[in-house]
């Protein structure tokens, strides 16, 4: 049986590329995002009553990975990127149908220029990700106190993030505090490849967040933001 799925909306987030996107929702609580509904789903009737809930389940497509296909085993970063487990025992992005799910905070719903927009917090989705369904998070059934988390039973360790004086000066006025908070929470996860976790190296890294090219380095005990180079694009939150 073949099933065709039409996205109900698209997300706009600070994450302009896959690198450094939080590996789970809620790890960057300061990050704000929006879903703009589209097609037949773009109607106020579709979100009537939604604001009764504090959190939502988002079902989405790993659209940047679909053409690459999938394999039955993967190497989760939480296991150091070396040990293989079954794809269905992971939340890997390369999956048979390329479908992901995230529990995110609902901040509000508004209408703007003929579009229904759902405001979110704590997202882990790349800017432009297609959303295929939205469901309310139901605490009594969705939060299971006796659940076991396997190899991901605890939250990942984080590193302190330090901004150089020049990087602080490059933060955009009016959004400086928000941008600095999100960048700090993203980099604190140490987004480098799993085999480099817990290690210092001499390499400089860069990631596209908001409309910055964020250059940073990693030592054993901290991450330093070296520079925030402006990128001329239309980014969420500007």
TrEMBL record:
TM ranges: none
Listed CDD domains: UPF0066
Source species, domain of life: Bacteria
Gene Ontology MF: a single term: tRNA (L-threonylcarbamoyladenosine(37)-C2) methyltransferase activity
UniProt keyword S-adenosyl-L-methionine present: yes
Entry keyword set: S-adenosyl-L-methionine
Keyword Zinc: no
TsaA-like domain location: 5-146
Alphabetical list of PANTHER family matching this protein: TRNA (ADENINE(37)-N6)-METHYLTRANSFERASE
Record family assignment: Belongs to the tRNA methyltransferase O family.
Name the record gives this protein: tRNA (N6-threonylcarbamoyladenosine(37)-N6)-methyltransferase TrmO
Organism for this UniProt entry: Photobacterium sanguinicancri
Lineage of source species: Bacteria, Pseudomonadati, Pseudomonadota, Gammaproteobacteria, Vibrionales
Gene label: tsaA
């Amino acid at each position: 049986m073949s099933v065709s799925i039409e996205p109900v909306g698209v997300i706009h987030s600070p994450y302009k590329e896959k690198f450094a996107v939080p590996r789970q929702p809620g790890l960057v609580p300061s990050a704000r995002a929006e879903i703009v509904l589209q097609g037949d789903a773009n109607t106020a009737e579709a979100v009537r009553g939604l604001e009764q809930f504090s959190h939502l389940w988002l079902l989405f497509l790993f659209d940047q990975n679909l053409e690459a296909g999938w394999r039955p085993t993967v190497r989760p970063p939480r296991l150091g990127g070396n040990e293989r487990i079954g794809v269905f025992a992971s939340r890997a992005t390369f999956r048979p149908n390329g479908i992901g799910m995230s529990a995110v905070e609902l901040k509000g719903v508004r209408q703007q220029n003929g579009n229904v927009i759902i405001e979110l917090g704590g997202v882990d989705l790349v800017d432009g990700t297609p959303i295929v369904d939205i469901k309310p998070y139901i605490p009594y059934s969705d939060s299971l106190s006796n659940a076991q988390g396997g190899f991901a039973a605890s939250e990942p360790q984080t590193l302190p993030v330090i901004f150089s004086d020049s990087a602080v000066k490059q933060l955009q006025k009016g959004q400086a505090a928000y941008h600095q908070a999100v960048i700090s929470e993203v980099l604190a996860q140490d987004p480098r490849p799993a085999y480099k976790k817990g290690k210092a190296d001499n390499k400089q890294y860069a990631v596209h967040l908001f409309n910055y090219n964020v250059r940073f380095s990693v030592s054993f005990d901290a991450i330093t933001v070296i520079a925030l180079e402006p990128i001329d694009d239309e980014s969420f939150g500007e």
